């Protein structure tokens, strides 16, 4: 079965297996930024954005993506500029996570970054409580969350400075 949708800002058409969940499809097709954690929708390591909202890709049947907009962590980083350095420029949210020390093992980072993006796209100046609420679907076992909250606040600053 083929589905058409938008993937990371570009038109996409995928051949999918009946009943296959999105996490498995992503990984089968080489997009490995969404991590497999619990397969029960509890840890958020597999978070992607569907029509701008965070979802657990381990729970969604891939066929439900048809005709919609899907953003994975691979689509957050701006495309490389044509130069010889081959260095990727980081999105301001990714840069803020690095600068705040909010990345340790990195397993939850894609889900945290995408949840941060969804929040800041909707609310560019969130309160600390709003940040906590937006991130509650992604578990981190390393940082204790304070650095992640700092990263979201810094992300908001970086994004507002860039406008």
* H and E string: EEHEEEHHHH
Structural class per helix/strand content?
A: alpha+beta
Q: Mind summarizing the main beta sheet?
A: 5 strands, mixed
Q: What is the terminal separation in angstroms?
A: 42 Å
Residue share in helix = 25-40%
Number of domains: 2
Please give the number of β-strands.
Answer: 5
CATH third-level topology of the largest domain:
Ubiquitin-like (UB roll)
CATH architecture of the largest domain: Roll
Coarse morphology? globular
Mean pLDDT level: 93
The CATH class of the largest domain is identified as Alpha Beta
Radius of gyration over alpha carbons? Answer: 16 Å
- The helix tally amounts to 5
Low-pLDDT stretches: none
What does the model show?
Strands 2-1-5-3-4 form a five-stranded mixed sheet, covered by helices on one side. The chain is of the alpha+beta class. The radius of gyration is 16 Å and the shape is globular. Helix 2 (92-99) crosses helix 5. It folds into two domains: 2-75, Beta-grasp domain (Ubiquitin-like (UB roll)), CATH 3.10.20.30; 92-161, [2Fe-2S]-binding domain (DNA polymerase, domain 1), CATH 1.10.150.120. The chain has helices at residues 22-28, 92-99, 109-122, 128-135, 146-161, and strands at residues 2-7, 10-15, 47-50, 53-56, 69-71. It is built from five helices and five strands; from the N terminus they run E-E-H-E-E-E-H-H-H-H.
List the helices and strands and how they pair.
Elements: E1 2-7, E2 10-15, H1 22-28, E3 47-50, E4 53-56, E5 69-71, H2 92-99, H3 109-122, H4 128-135, H5 146-161
Parallel strand pairs: 1-5
Antiparallel strand pairs: 1-2, 3-4, 3-5
């Amino acid at each position: 079965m083929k589905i058409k949708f938008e993937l990371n800002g570009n038109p996409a058409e995928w051949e999918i297996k009946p009943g296959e969940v999105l996490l498995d499809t992503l990984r089968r097709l080489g997009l490995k930024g969404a991590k497999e954690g619990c397969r029960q929708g509890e840890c958020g390591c597999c978070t992607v954005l569907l029509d701008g909202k965070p979802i657990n890709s381990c729970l969604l049947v891939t066929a439900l993506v048809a005709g919609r907009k899907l953003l994975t962590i691979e689509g957050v980083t701006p495309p490389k500029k044509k130069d010889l350095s081959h260095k990727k420029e980081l999105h301001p949210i990714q840069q803020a996570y690095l600068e705040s020390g909010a990345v340790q093992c990195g397993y939850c980072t894609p889900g945290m970054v995408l949840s941060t993006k969804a929040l800041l796209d909707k609310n560019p100046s969130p309160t600390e409580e709003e940040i906590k609420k937006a991130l509650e679907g992604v578990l981190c076992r390393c940082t204790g969350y304070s650095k992640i909250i700092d990263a979201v606040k810094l992300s908001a600053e970086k994004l507002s400075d860039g406008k």
